[in-house]
Amino acid sequence: MTSPELTESVRQNGKERSLSNHTESTNPYELALQNFEAAADLLELNESDRAEIRAPERTLIVNVPVRMNDGSIRSFEGYRVQHSTARGPAKGGIRFHPGVTLDEVRALAMWMTWKCAVVNVPFGGGKGGVTCNPKEMRPEEIERLTRRYTSAILPIIGPDKDIPAPDVYTNAQVMAWIMDTYSMTRGHLVPGVVTGKPISLGGSLGRSEATARGVFHTIEAACQHLRFSLKGARVVIQGFGNAGSIAANLIDSAQAEVIAVSDSKGCVYNAHGLHIPKLMTHKEKTGSVVGFSGAEPITPEELLALPCDILIPAALENAITHTNAEKVRAKVVAEAANGPLTPEADAVLDELGVFVIPDILCNAGGVTVSYYEWVQNHQHISWDLNEVNSRLEAVMSRSFHEVLETSQERKTNMRTAANILAIRRVVDAAKLRGLYP
Asked: How buried is residue 68: exposed, middle or buried, by Cβ count under 10 Å (0-12/13-18/19+)?
């Protein structure tokens, strides 16, 4: 648990001069609450306002028994958390991962609330997950798991209540199974119950690359603000899944040099820049970036310490903590992942003058295009790719500058500014609605 002294220092603009003599918390929900309190303090929110929006509105824990291919039945634990519906239906992904915990899901649901608010999408925050290892399961077992989990959370999801989406180790196919399971119980097709669906089932063009495209647009805006060119910039990417690989491709297309990337199996580095299209093909064929002929292997620790202009954490939470933050040698850290920096790491990078684009802004492209998909489903229309991408670029650019303006007005860092902007919007909505009964 983080010491009271550190918590207090984090509340004061996210700055902490001394990080010694304490134990850093890596509990994601505790970290989410720390960031909330820091912004709430600067907003001078009273305890009543905090109490109304701090805790999740609804938490569902379900047992998910699944018949495996060998005939045995295994039981998995699943969660769905709705943090806030003050501004609209809950919105957030579902992840299948062995590390899923209730506190992780609660933190991610809270972050989704702020993420939707910071880009002014009329959704609240939700998140779900099942503690399992899909890499050890056959596709038909994953389908049975998905349908059973969907049945268990059925009472609280719906196109006007709570709309799931893909997340870690889930994809468009998983969303199709969720939609079908929900639709079968309603007796008719309900495409708007999930987003991130296959295009043929009502998915939106541009959704699969939306998170990475949002990351790219916020990086462009940051480069413009800091007065250095993205062309020729040296970029390091931790994580080469959907967001990381597509961000790498977009950045490479902008003539920046991606010098190092990593995935769960290892890291590769080339001081002169990696050939990203060939690396993506290698990853598709082999399942990893490891062994790419146009690079040399390095350790995860070395990757985070590489001198670069832009570092993109695109993996899981707590990638950068107080133990390794001082080794970061980037001008910009763009959080494509959720919660990759702890508050202590934030304080270190703030002190070092690193410009951090916080996750609730940086990776909000995914939820923005999810909103577009939901709108298209409700209106029974389909937008072309150019319309989706141009709308997304406009939202990400506007949101970046709103956060930047708040940062400059409040004389605080971008994360606290983003939280201030988002929390203010949620508090205003809650106050206008009032309490019932």
From this structure: middle
Catalytic pick among 127, 197, 283, 331: 127
Helices and strands: H and E segment counts in the chain: 15, 12
Q: What is the DSSP letter of 295?
A: S
Strands 234-238 and 257-263: parallel
Task: Return the CATH number of the domain spanning residue range 210-362.
Answer: 3.40.50.720
Long-range contact set of residues 372-378: C-beta below 8 Å, sequence gap at least 24: 372/204, 373/195, 373/196, 373/197, 373/202, 373/203, 373/204, 373/207, 374/159, 374/163, 374/192, 374/195, 376/202, 376/204, 377/159, 377/191, 377/192, 377/202, 378/159, 378/192
Per residue in 387-415, pLDDT (tens digit) is: 999 999 999 999 999 999 999 999 999 99
Q: Where are the domains of the chain?
A: 55-190, 210-362
Q: Which CATH class is domain 55-190?
A: alpha beta
Tell me the per-residue pLDDT of 99-108, one tens digit each, with 9 for 90 and over: 999 999 999 9
> Angle 202-203-205 (CA atoms, 0-180°, nearest 5)?
125
Beta bridge partners of 63: 77
285 is catalytic: no
